[in-house]
Amino acid sequence: MTKYVIIGNGVSALLAAKAIASIDYATPIKIISTNNHKTISKPALSYLLKNKLTLSQLQRLPDDFYVQTNLDMINKKVQRIDPINKQVVFTDNKKQAYDKLLLAQGSEPVIPDCGGLEKDNIITCHTLSDVQKIKESLQKITKAVVIGAGPTGLEIASVLAEKKIDVVIIEKSNYILNSIIPLEYMDIIISQYRKKGVRFILKDEVKHCGGVDNKATYVETEKGARFEAQLIILCCGVNPKIDIIEKTKIRRHRGILVDNTMKTTVKDIWSAGSVTELENEYTNTRAVLPYWNVCSQMGTVAGYNMAGKHKVLELGNNLFSCELADKQFHLVGTIECDDTRNKCSVIEDINRLEGRFLRFVFNDNMLVGACWYGRGPNPFTLKQLIDSETIIEASKKELLSKTFNWEHLLKV
Amino acid sequence: MIPLSTKKTLQIHKERIENDKNNCTLCHHCLEICPASLSDVVNMNEFLFVLDSKNEPRGPLKRFILNCSQCGLCSDACPRGNRFDMMVRELKGRIREKPASYIAGTALKKQKLTFSENFQCKAKYFANKKQLKELMKYLDKIPPRTKILFYAGEHILLPTSHAQWELVKQYAPDAQIMGGLKLASGYDFLVQGDIKRASHQFDVLASALKRVDPKIVIVPSVAAFHAMSEVAYMHHKPFKIMTLTEWIQKQDIPFGKLPPIAIYHNPMMMKMCGMNLGELFVKSTRVTDVDKNGNCPTMEYNYDEDNHNLTLRHNIIAQAKENGECLVVDCAYTAEILKQAVTKENKIRIYDVASFIKKHVGDSND
Question: What is the pTM for the complete model shown?
Answer without folding.
Answer: 0.70
